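Saturday, quiet lab. Running sequence design on the structure tokens for the scaffold JK sent over.
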């Protein structure tokens, strides 16, 4: 038997247990004179957020800048709706780009959150066994 080809395989998947989805929607009002307005911030550093953001501008003479993680990502003008898919979202901000006075609109976040959970288990809940190169369990005591 070639022992270099034997590997350990866990009998469960950890990745299936730690994903959930949140949907956050709200309106905003931001003045050109106040600069960027933070609409959402990731409060948990052990959560990775991916998903889609949709922003629309219902009032404002110029354009509205959308900033993800502090970086300008896209802009919308009055009556326009724009969506963007993202990875690792930490913050969402908007700002009136032109001296247009007040910008009003709404945003929708669809967040898929993967939790970075430390792996812990009880001694009697883990089953390990040896497998061959095709993944078949070897009939052998460890």
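Result came back. Writing it out in full:
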């Amino acid at each position: 038997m070639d022992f270099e080809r034997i590997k350990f395989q866990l009998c469960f998947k950890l990745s299936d247990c730690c994903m959930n989805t949140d949907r956050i929607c709200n309106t905003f009002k931001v003045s050109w004179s106040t600069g960027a307005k933070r609409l959402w911030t990731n409060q948990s550093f052990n959560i990775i957020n991916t998903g889609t953001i949709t922003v629309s501008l219902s009032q404002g003479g110029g354009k509205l800048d959308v900033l993800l993680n502090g970086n300008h990502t896209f802009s919308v003008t009055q009556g326009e709706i724009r969506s963007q898919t993202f990875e690792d979202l930490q913050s969402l901000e908007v700002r009136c780009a032109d001296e247009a006075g007040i910008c009003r609109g709404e945003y929708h976040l669809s967040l898929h959150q993967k939790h970075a959970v430390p792996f812990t288990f009880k001694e009697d809940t883990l089953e390990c066994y040896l497998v061959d190169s095709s993944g078949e369990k070897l009939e052998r005591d460890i």
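Notes for JK: Strands lie at 7-10, 19-31, 37-41, 47-59, 63-68, 71-77, 81-87, 91-96, 102-115, 128-131. The chain has no helices and ten strands. Ask whether to fix the surface positions before the next round.
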